[in-house]
């Protein structure tokens, strides 16, 4: 497990090559990967429709479902057969689900804090506008801007905590707490190549979302394969 915790700095060129590697893995079983993505989205949407409990359950279980894609990516890389049920590998392997629930709980906690900060600032701003006769002063807009920036920052922190913690727990048997520490530090060490790659991917993501999000059925599994490729590059 010590080797699994060691990460390295990669170049921008290596990061861009993750796109090609992700595509090559996707091409091996595009149909099954799209079906798995459809099931994942279906579970997420159905869960979100259940008041209060649904969104919480979806957030808690998302890392475990995401781990299924990491498992599949490794199987594809090693030219082993995969099946749709591999999406639920984290539930099948002894001791894994508890670790992923910890990751989900951390994600949930960060999300709740972020929303509380943002909506609290908005409500405070509306109260101040009402108290001044409906005239929003510069402090109102400054407050809203700060709240949004805090929310975005917390979102980035959550991504950095979870990005590599999922494959570390799933594929290297690292504990959830050790995995999130390692993931955050690995992302911090590679912040520049990850930022450049994110900027490159922004346009295809927007294009995939436009047709009712249908493009994400293809792009999402490719992105998952890219995450695996980046994990292998940085950690192994």
SSE inventory with pairings:
Blueprint: H1 12-28, H2 30-48, H3 53-77, H4 89-92, H5 96-131, H6 138-162, H7 165-172, H8 176-189, H9 191-209, H10 216-235
Helix pairs in contact: 1-9, 1-10, 2-3, 2-10, 3-5, 3-7, 3-10, 5-6, 5-7, 6-8, 7-8
Q: How many beta-strand elements?
A: 0
Helix/sheet category: mainly alpha
Q: From N to C, what is the helix and strand string?
A: HHHHHHHHHH
Largest sheet: none
Count of DSSP H/I helices: 10
* Uncertain parts: none
What's the helical proportion of residues?
over 70%
Portion in strands: under 5%
Count structural domains. 1
| Gross geometry | globular
The residue-averaged pLDDT reads: 90
Radius of gyration: 19 Å
Query: What is the distance, rounded to the nearest whole angstrom, between the alpha carbons of the first and last residues?
Result: 12 Å
In summary, what is this structure?
By secondary structure, the chain is mainly alpha-helical. It has helices spanning 12-28, 30-48, 53-77, 89-92, 96-131, 138-162, 165-172, 176-189, 191-209, 216-235. It is built from ten helices and no strands.
Can you walk through the features of this model?
The chain has helices spanning 12-28, 30-48, 53-77, 89-92, 96-131, 138-162, 165-172, 176-189, 191-209, 216-235. The protein has one domain. It contains ten helices and no strands. The model has no long low-confidence stretch (mean pLDDT 90). The chain is mainly alpha-helical. Helix 5 (96-131) packs antiparallel against helix 7 (165-172). The protein starts with 11 loop residues before the first helix and ends with a helix.
């Amino acid at each position: 497990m010590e080797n699994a915790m060691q990460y390295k700095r990669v170049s921008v060129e290596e990061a861009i090559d993750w796109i090609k590697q992700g595509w090559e893995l996707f091409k091996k079983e595009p149909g099954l990967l799209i079906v798995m993505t459809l099931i994942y989205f279906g579970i997420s949407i159905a869960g979100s429709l259940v008041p209060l409990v649904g969104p919480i359950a979806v957030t808690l279980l998302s890392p475990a479902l995401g781990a299924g894609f990491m498992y599949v990516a490794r199987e594809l890389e090693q030219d082993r057969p995969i099946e749709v049920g591999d999406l639920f590998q984290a539930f099948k392997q002894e001791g894994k689900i508890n670790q992923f629930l910890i990751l989900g709980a951390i994600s949930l906690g960060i999300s709740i804090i972020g929303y509380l900060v943002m909506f609290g600032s908005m409500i405070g701003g509306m109260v101040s506008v009402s108290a001044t006769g409906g005239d929003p002063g510069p402090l109102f807009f400054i407050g809203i801007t700060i709240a949004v920036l805090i929310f975005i920052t917390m979102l980035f922190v959550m991504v950095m905590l979870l990005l590599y913690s999922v494959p570390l727990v799933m594929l290297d048997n690292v504990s959830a707490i050790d995995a999130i520490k390692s993931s955050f530090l690995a992302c911090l060490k590679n912040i520049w190549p990850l930022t450049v790659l994110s900027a490159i991917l922004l346009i295809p993501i927007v294009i995939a979302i436009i047709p009712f999000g249908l493009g994400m059925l293809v792009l999402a599994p490719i992105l998952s394969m890219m995450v695996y490729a980046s994990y292998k590059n940085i950690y192994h």
